[in-house]
Design brief:
The chain has six helices and 18 strands. The chain is of the alpha+beta class. It has two domains: about 140 residues, Diaminopimelate Epimerase, Chain A, domain 1 (Roll); about 120 residues, Diaminopimelate Epimerase, Chain A, domain 1 (Roll), CATH 3.10.310.10.
């Protein structure tokens, strides 16, 4: 059996930046252990498996260790590949049926001083953050004194004082593995006029010490900062080593997460 598989850098327009995701185009249902093995073989933070269904696609995401309920950058990568390869017409909005409900993607344009740039808009569920008790492993794992600690449905959100503190973080990942959550979002207001807020994301519990750019974390970050900054639309930067930028817009109980993507590898999976 030969299956085409791709690696896409998401939330960037430059190869080797942003967050790499695998996209494995399957034409029939596959066993869970097979998809988990492919994700382990790819060894990326997530690999996506879209399967055509009804008027859209059944979409699942796997880290090298587990299946996850929601993934932004691999959804962005999937939409990018479906349009780029001609599987779907560029003007067609895409529908993804997932563990987190219906997600959609559509192409949009952003006019810059130089040219019009193509972006992809993802429609995701908002994940409001509520104040939460602070686990000792969280504080000792991060090694900082936070200004705020809250939790959405799956992640802790930690606000720190400034960007210097955010960038200097060197977490104890063994301690963070003990925190009962998918991951830990650390964020602060941006010191740059180019962005409204910045963040980093740590998820050693699901096999990802630091995720380069985490679309799904912005389901919580967008409403959190939207309320604090009194804005609906914001420009965000995830300050990992690879780095990536996102535009977010709060729309009631949904968040529009926008980014760019570039294909870096196309190959054939023999399995």
């Amino acid at each position: 059996m030969e299956i085409t598989i791709y690696q896409v850098d998401s939330f960037t327009k430059q190869p080797f930046h942003g967050n790499p995701a695998g996209v494995c185009l399957i034409d029939s249902p596959k066993p869970d252990d097979w998809m988990q093995s492919v994700a382990l073989e790819m060894n990326l933070s997530e690999t996506a498996f879209p399967l055509r269904e009804r008027d859209g696609y059944r979409l699942r995401w796997f880290t090298p260790k587990v299946e996850v309920d929601l993934c932004g950058h691999a959804t962005l990568a999937t939409a990018h590949i479906l349009w780029e390869t001609g599987e779907e017409a560029p003007e067609r909005a895409l529908r993804f049926y997932t563990r987190s409900g219906l997600l959609t993607a559509q192409r949009s344009g952003l006019l810059t001083a130089q040219r019009r740039e193509d972006w992809i808009d993802l429609n995701f569920p908002a994940a409001p953050v509520e104040p939460a008790p602070i686990p000792q492993d969280l504080i000792e794992g991060l090694g900082i004194t936070p200004q705020f600690v809250g939790k959405d449905g799956s992640d802790y959100l930690v606000e720190v004082e400034n960007e210097s503190m955010l960038l200097a973080l060197e977490p104890d990942f063994e301690r963070l593995k003990k925190v009962a959550s998918r991951g830990v979002i650390v964020t602060c207001c941006s010191s740059s006029r180019d962005y409204d807020f910045v963040s980093r994301f740590f998820a050693p519990r699901v096999g990802i010490n630091e995720d380069p750019v985490t679309g799904s974390a912005h389901c919580a970050l967008a409403p959190y900062w939207g309320k604090k900054l009194e804005k609906d639309s914001m420009h965000a930067y995830q300050a990992s080593q690879r780095g990536g930028e996102l535009r977010v817009r709060v729309d009631g109980e949904r968040v529009i997460i926008s980014g760019q993507a570039v294909t870096v590898i196309q190959g054939t999976l023999f399995s």
